[in-house]
From TrEMBL:
The keyword Oxidoreductase is assigned to this record: yes
Official protein name in the record: Ring-cleaving dioxygenase
The keyword Oxidoreductase is assigned to this record: yes
Domain VOC intervals: 5-131, 156-281
Keywords, alphabetical: Dioxygenase, Oxidoreductase
Single GO MF annotation: dioxygenase activity
PROSITE patterns linked: VOC
InterPro entries with a match to the protein in the record: Extradiol_RC_dioxygenase (IPR052537), Glyas_Bleomycin-R_OHBP_Dase (IPR029068), Glyas_Fos-R_dOase_dom (IPR004360), VOC_core (IPR037523)
Amino acid sequence: MNVKGIHHLSAMTGDAPGNFKFYTEVLGMRLIKKTVNQDDTSAYHLFYGDERGNPGTELTFFDFPGIGPTRAGASSISGTSLRVPSDTALKYWLDRFTEHGVKHTAITEFAGRNVIFFEDPEGQQLSLVSDETNSGVKGGIPWDQSPVPAEFGIIGLGPVKLTVRKPDSTLAALKLIGFTEKNRIPALVKGQEDIIVMQVGAGGSGAEVQVEPRSDLSVAALGKGGVHHVAFRVDDKEELLSWIEVLNKAGLRNSGFVERYYFRSLYFREPNGILFELATDGPGFDTDEPFETLGESLALPPFLEDQRQSIEANLRPLSTKRTV
């Protein structure tokens, strides 16, 4: 049993067309799957990633038109980072963000790496983190048809920041699935405790969680611009089933085995209320679509295919077919 790092992050949007435009045209990620939220098929589920949507590169969004904005606070996934290959790449992104009117900071150092903090159009708190001195979990491969040159392109998910009122219980949940403490860094807010940096597997940016204690905050309210859950990588279904036994023994209520078709899942909430997922590395996103046309059509897993007509009738039109 070996949790290997971050698998994906799932966030919220109220504007699927605008979300698609920003993440593909500005950030240069590839939409590798346009499908639906399997628990609410009236909502799109959009998956962005590297050229194939390899595990550890996927940033996904549930689309709920009209949803209100997230209210920042505790018991939340408060920071999402995306890896780029080098410090030189960060300099490229400064110019690109200025060109596209993206709200961003200068290059700064955080948790031992050079980063740029920025926001998407709905206020999601993001950062680009340089892999210049990174080791551990390898990054992905940028799509060769991205508007961003490959040498500067996003290669996967970096450290995830969790903001909680009671860090010890969150740390215990992370330790249960294999995380160990790497180090601690000074708090971002005066009077608060240091941020605890946790890592798993081979370590590095793709396997790091930063736990930020914040006793001064009320509980967050999830909306557009917020993050719904974070998923961690496991090898296969057999390992996933073993983790169910571990969670049950620890007294953590969980979903049990969930078939997502593109991967298999197990969900549970750590004691501060943040939703964690364990997800298998396969089968992958080219299971039902050719690599060349990933994300261009609405893909449905076999168990939803007989509902396609009614599902499509309840979705807003969203054109993702490439025209070039």
